Amino acid sequence: MSVQELVGYDKAAVRSILDAVRAEGRDSLTAPEGRAVVEAYGISTPGEGLAANPEDAVVLATRMGFPVVLKIVSPDILHKTEAGGVIVGVTDAAAAADAYRTIVRNAREYDPDARIAGVQVQQMLTAGHEVIIGAVSDPTFGKIVAFGLGGVLVEVLKDVTFRLAPTSPETARSMVEGIKAAEILRGVRGAEPADAEALAQLISRVSDLVTDFPEISEVDLNPVLATATSATAVDVRILVGAAAEPPARFTREEILASMNRIMRPASVAVIGASAEDGKIGNSVMKNLVNGGFAGKIHPVNPKASDILGLPAVAGINDIEGDVDVAIFAIPAKFVPAALEEAGAKGVAGAILIPSGFGETGNQELQDEVVAIARKHGVRILGPNIYGYYYTPQHLSATFCTPYDVPGGVALSSQSGGIGMAILGFSRSARMGVSAIVGVGNKADLDEDDLLTFFEDDEHTQLIAMHLEDLKDGRAFAETAQRVSKHKPVIVLKAGRTAEGARAAGSHTGALAGDDVVYDDILRESGVIRAPGLNDLLEYARGLPQLPTPKGENVVIITGAGGSGVLLSDACVDNGLSLMRIPEDLDQAFRAFIPPFGAAGNPVDITGGEPPSTYRNTIALGLEDPRIHALILGYWHTIVTPPMTFAELVVDVVDEFRARGIHKPIVASLSGDVEVEEAAEFLYRHGVVAYPYTTEKPVAVLGAKYRWARAAGLL
Fold this sequence. Notes:
The chain is built from 25 helices and 30 strands. The chain has 714 residues and is α/β, with parallel strands linked by helices. The chain folds into four domains: 3-123, ATP-grasp fold, A domain (Dna Ligase, domain 1), CATH 3.30.1490.20; 129-240, 2-Layer Sandwich (D-amino Acid Aminotransferase, Chain A, domain 1); 262-542, Succinyl-CoA synthetase domains (Rossmann fold); 547-710, Succinyl-CoA synthetase domains (Rossmann fold), CATH 3.40.50.261.
């Protein structure tokens, strides 16, 4: 049963208050109005009353009992403390009267034109943990809810977590447990714990409130005092505005109908095809032809009769039969007219390579081509892109060079420069790729459409995306949550700044301007965030090589104590759990290592050992079902040279794979330049290995573990 069903919300009362606020042209609720709104949703507040004069303040304070708090009530003063409009700890009648006069005087000095409804007299609560619970309308994700430490701590520590609204009870509970200071709320050093369930219910009620009334732009309950038996909203701030129009969305079926034709076209037209070297239209034609695309290729150029041995046509309407994709290699100003023709022809996708649209400030032209595309049911990729690849079709619809290493990784980038880096890395590492897609301005097709296609694409096992923003973050999060259950989704989010916080009108709004919103919501959706470009690419390359772990027990086997320490640090940094080696397993390892070595974890076999020591200890790690993943730290020695180490590792791993034992194994190789060849050999044979670094192999393993946990596989 939902919180709403249990509590029985008074929506009519909230509607009446919001309508009155709107009628007065206000964008914020007064404190008494805010209190009435949250109480209509079952949220407790302290006893209070509105005083119109000092005498009223004395009567109210005496009735509810000292100490009390007095606060200015004005629709024009949002930040009461800044205006000197709050006095706490009022302990007697005389102080209550004086506090009333002081607050009104301060408010007049702060804003002489402010409308003053009176002074709120509120019961002063002193017991409990201070937390903040709020909601905000995020431009990317829509309605989101927040939870964290409250009062002054929210300003200093910013220990806050965010989720999409509406939240489930389980999600609300995860928020209470998800902040760094969760241990404080459980009670430390004899302190009373907070009622976690009461806090979770309060989060759910705020979430339901902003979902039911989209015109509520921000809710700030700060502080909420949480005791062992209750959660009370001491201060309430609510802002209102016009409800945002939900982004236009396509159904999953509509997306797949278009994307299947775009990614698997039978016929492609190149508008602006050229026979002249150095022209984009020439490069696109060469890549389609030289890349081995087996479908029909139609060059469109009114001034040519033949391009690369293919007959050219003056316009797309001159092509006989259907055309799935039109690639535009013409100046931006000519795109609208050409798109009208392509739309009339019935193309599914318009690939807009040219720049000169929204990225240069010409939003009007970009909006025009989107409107034309919508009229004809055409989906646009771009504009301002390098094109796209889909290797199962040998399709290189781009002015970059063809890519011919098919595999299971699909990559996309919002930036052309990052796209070039993706292409170069993939080629250098011989990474098997199903697709590389540039999305550019994302006038239409975006990451959500790509995820929807790659979800069902049998050729794709992992999706890695560089993005600077999300056009519809909620749609992306919902799609990613579904896709990531069976395929890893890795995201490099650029632009991790708090610029959006500057104009916020509440604590919640200011905190929501931080990158933590992306971090929390993407993680909740099962997305693995990469901290940098190289991390994105190495995760994409490495995760498909690693079997899914069956448990959390990680063991380090190393030939150098120094590497073992660094590898242990890397495990902590990446959320990996070093196994506590039981006595019988400890003795089993000791049977293979010298007396001056060290069992435990890391298992230090020391540097002078022969290949057999590496082989035996690795075999033991693979054999024992209590060990779920291995990290190997190799140290270059004459006794066990790098390639000897690499070959024995591959040999023993293959032996156990043949027996049906598959565990993730990563390796760090330290030594002279020969370790480079050894690491490459290991990687080619399914062991993720790197020379000269202890951090990178563990980071890849950590990413695999984060995905497995999010997908519910551990």
